[in-house]
From TrEMBL, chain A:
UniProt source species: Balaenoptera acutorostrata
Classification via InterPro entries: Asp/Glu-ADT_sf_sub_c, GatC
The organism's place on the tree of life at top rank: Eukaryota
Protein name (record): Glutamyl-tRNA(Gln) amidotransferase subunit C, mitochondrial-like
UniProtKB/TrEMBL annotation, chain B:
Class of enzymatic activity (EC top level): ligase
UniProt-annotated catalytic positions: S80, S104
Keyword annotations: ATP-binding, Ligase, Mitochondrion, Nucleotide-binding, Protein biosynthesis
Subunit structure, as described in the record: Subunit of the heterotrimeric GatCAB amidotransferase (AdT) complex, composed of A (QRSL1), B (GATB) and C (GATC) subunits.
Locations listed in the record: Mitochondrion
SUPFAM superfamilies registered for this protein in UniProt: Amidase signature (AS) enzymes
Protein name as annotated: Glutamyl-tRNA(Gln) amidotransferase subunit A, mitochondrial
Keyword Nucleotide-binding in record: yes
Region (Disordered): 55-76
Record PANTHER family: GLUTAMYL-TRNA(GLN) AMIDOTRANSFERASE SUBUNIT A, MITOCHONDRIAL, TRANSAMIDASE
Reaction(s) the record says it catalyses: L-glutamyl-tRNA(Gln) + L-glutamine + ATP + H2O = L-glutaminyl-tRNA(Gln) + L-glutamate + ADP + phosphate + H(+)
Coiled coil residues, start to end: none
Role according to the record: Allows the formation of correctly charged Gln-tRNA(Gln) through the transamidation of misacylated Glu-tRNA(Gln) in the mitochondria. The reaction takes place in the presence of glutamine and ATP through an activated gamma-phospho-Glu-tRNA(Gln).
Length: 149, 435
């Protein structure tokens, strides 16, 4: 199969579409990944931290199909290991070189308790109502299936 | 999760439009919480691409297949802002808002034959935009022509005290000049964007576009963005990590859906979120929480932040070398049928379809998708222009020049053609919005 590549013929200043050999494998978006995490390994990793993950996320893995996708996502992410990032700082914001200002801490709007409370399903005397908070969510291997409300 | 929720305030971008006299016609469909690249995973069902019903597409289909149900194989819009793109494409409205975190405005714009603009990060307020990735999200615009995109941007751009990530520099509404001389322009073609997965038709149009600029006197050069191959992985880690954090606010306590479970707070949160979020959202939350675990934080999240710097630096280096605007495909191919799209899961499709668009979000740059031509099947194909940070006006000026040269045809929908025959006399008109 012929593949197409892009090239600029020097001297003629023409951009043209040429032929690109398959030999040498793909380029462009294929990463030269480092060690790959096998699906089985990522499944073991995921299962191992599942007891921490679900309570932290307050989201569960649900059915068997839904477990497979986080595994693939984690295996996919492992490719980042291949990138050399020595002496490279993390980016927290692309505006890090500029000056961003916070507004002053003066209350200029609000007083909309009624509107806000209209969106809540349960409130008493303008307080949001929560169930008891000192009961931890059951562990993964002990919990009963969540009932569908 | 937000069933029945009535926002107690307007997003800044919405308020700005209302202040200018705009009429809000409605809210459009999308992938749930903007997670997806097809607009197929929303609670209201998938969005159908208006081009599925266009004369241009149907005539090509009739040539190939006979007697099939014309509606059975409708096409996706792309996503996640597919509803907005469809609305503009079908002449439902003058313009629509979308969001763009990894290409969610540009992707559906390309598939629906409209102009999709992602402004520079920091130019347009995110106040009121449900956050997905705080450091990448940008409100996007969908319009039928570049001039309209400039009009809307002129209204939306500018500092917002309610969003501290907007820059302080004053921005005024502007009119795009009609560029005639491109001899001082330098267009960059990133070589790493030439991937085997790119369809031959998109590849051909990309080449044709480059030749168009060069034939009119512009300098067109091949450039390199060396870390391109790691971009989608980097985006995936950062996106899921920030999603894990941003979705934590949806617990049913103060607003939105709430389960009946009253056993405990945690049980209530978990059941509410299980019912309120679809599988796609929950998968990203779980993956993101994995990357944010103490044992993984440095190796995944911080690592991805470092790779992000390398990716952003690639763009800076290219622009510092004299390139004004980059020209790339927006999507791998034209819009595909829904039945074909759903054969792969959301994460796989997003990784495939965000390939040309997400790096722009990581660098915070402005980018616009402009429809160029119809494919052999009569479907739109768009190309992407990427500009320097906060050079949105220059970017749109170049895009307008290109739009005028390619004369993308108007969609021919039977109902529209019956009602507006006088407007469609000139079939090559890109926008009939303000004329």
């Amino acid at each position: 199969m012929q593949e197409i590549y892009w090239g600029v013929i020097s001297g003629t200043s023409q951009v043209w579409l040429g032929l690109w050999a398959l030999a040498g494998g793909r380029r462009g978006f294929t990463s030269k990944a480092g060690p790959r995490v096998e699906a089985g390994a990522s499944r073991r990793v995921l299962k191992g931290v599942g007891q921490i993950l679900e309570p932290l996320a307050l989201a569960d893995f649900g059915s068997g199909g839904a477990v497979a996708r986080p595994e693939k996502a984690i295996a996919f992410a492992y490719r980042l290991c291949a990138v050399a990032t020595d002496r490279v700082g993390p980016v927290r914001s692309v505006l890090e070189d500029g000056c961003l200002c916070l507004r002053s801490d003066n209350v200029v709007e609000g007083n909309c308790a009624e509107e806000l409370l209209q969106n809540s399903r349960r409130d008493v005397e303008e307080y949001f109502v929560a169930p008891p908070g000192r009961i931890s969510w059951p562990k993964l291997d002990e919990k009963e299936p969540l009932s569908h409300c | 999760m937000l069933k029945g929720y009535v926002p107690p305030y307007n997003a800044t971008v919405v308020q700005k439009l209302l202040d200018q006299g705009a009429l809000l016609m409605g809210k459009t469909n999308l992938d749930e919480f903007a997670m997806g690249s097809g607009s197929t995973d929303g609670i209201f069902g998938p969005v159908k691409n208006p081009w599925s019903y266009s004369k241009q597409y149907r005539e090509k289909r009739k040539q190939k297949s006979h007697g099939e149900n014309e509606d059975s194989d409708w096409l996706i819009t792309g996503g996640s802002s597919g509803g907005s793109a469809a609305a503009v494409s079908a002449f439902t409205c003058f313009a629509a808002l979308g969001s763009d975190t990894g290409g969610s405005t540009r992707n559906p714009a390309a598939h629906c034959g409209v102009v999709g603009l992602k402004p520079s990060y920091g130019l347009v307020s995110r106040h009121g935009l449900i956050p997905l990735v705080n450091s990448m999200d940008v409100p996007g615009t969908l319009t039928r022509c570049v001039d309209d995109a400039a009009t809307v941007l002129g209204i939306l751009a500018g500092h917002d005290p309610k969003d501290s990530t907007t820059i302080q520099d004053p921005v005024k509404p502007f009119t795009l000049p009609s560029l005639t001389d491109v001899s001082k322009l330098c267009i960059g073609i990133p070589k790493e964007y030439l991937t085997p997965a790119l369809s031959s038709e998109v590849r051909s149009l990309w080449s044709k576009a480059a030749n168009l600029f060069e034939s009119e006197g512009a300098k067109v050069i091949e450039v390199s963005l060396p870390h391109t191959s790691y971009s989608i992985v980097c985006y995936h880690v950062l996106c899921t990590s920030e999603v894990a954090s941003n979705m934590a606010r949806f617990d049913g306590l103060e607003y939105g859906h709430r389960c009946d479970t009253d056993v405990s707070t945690e049980a209530m949160y978990a059941a509410t979120r299980r019912e309120g979020f679809n599988d796609v959202v929950r998968e990203r939350i779980l993956s993101g929480n994995f990357f944010l675990l103490k044992e993984n934080y440095e190796n995944y999240f911080v690592k991805a932040q470092k790779v992000r710097r390398l990716i952003a630096r690639d763009f800076v280096n290219v622009f510092n070398s004299g390139v004004d605007v980059l020209l790339t495909p927006t999507t791998l191919s034209e819009a595909v049928p829904h039945t074909e799209f759903i054969r792969e899961d959301n994460r796989t499709r997003s990784a495939q379809n965000d390939i040309f668009t997400q790096a722009v979000n990581m660098a915070g740059l402005p980018a616009v998708s402009v429809p160029m031509a119809l494919s052999s099947q009569g479907l739109p194909i768009g190309l992407q222009f990427i500009g320097r940070a906060f050079c949105d006006q220059q970017l749109l000026t170049v895009a307008k020049w290109f739009e005028k040269r390619v004369q993308f045809p108007v969609i021919q929908l039977q109902e529209l053609m019956d009602d507006c025959s006088s407007i469609f006399e000139n079939e090559k008109l890109a926008s009939v919005s303000l004329k």
